Amino acid sequence: MGIEGSPFVSHGCSSRTERAELSAETRSQLLDACQSAYPEEACGVLAGDLPGPAANQADGVVRVTAVYPIRNTASDTAAAFSFHPQDWINTLYRIQKNRQSLVGIYHSHPVQPAFPSEADHQGMQFGSAASYWIISLADRACPVIQPYRWENRAFHPLVLA
Ligand SMILES: [Zn+2]
Fold first, then answer.
1. How many other C-beta atoms are found inside a 10 Å radius of the C-beta of residue 75?
2. Would you say residue 114 lies in a domain?
3. Could you list the residue range(s) of the whole structural domain that residue 52 is in?
């Protein structure tokens, strides 16, 4: 995105992320954000408490403690997402101000399952985020949250604790 001071964390060879953790409160915030955008796709970022790379690299676990919804400006919001540019910049500042770090990008699939779509593969401009989360509302009463990491041009599912 060409934003200086971006809190993105890149993967080193020694820091493979295999697990993700979501507190009950954060899980409920994430689901609320996705449900309220329905039938459009919700999108936003997930932050962790630790500032800087430590949040992701201490033990290879992505720990989410905050949800920052971002307005979806895609031309077809029912089937795609694109971050509102000013929301995105404001969110990066808020995360830094709160001494957090960006640990993931999320979006919802209102109808499709929680698997990366062709558009998700093509839209990996956020490929340096530690994790990429898809929330499926295909069964609205029973949403599915699935985190992935992006490595070697492919999505790899993370175990969600
Ligand atoms: Zn998607």
1. 7
2. yes
3. 17-160
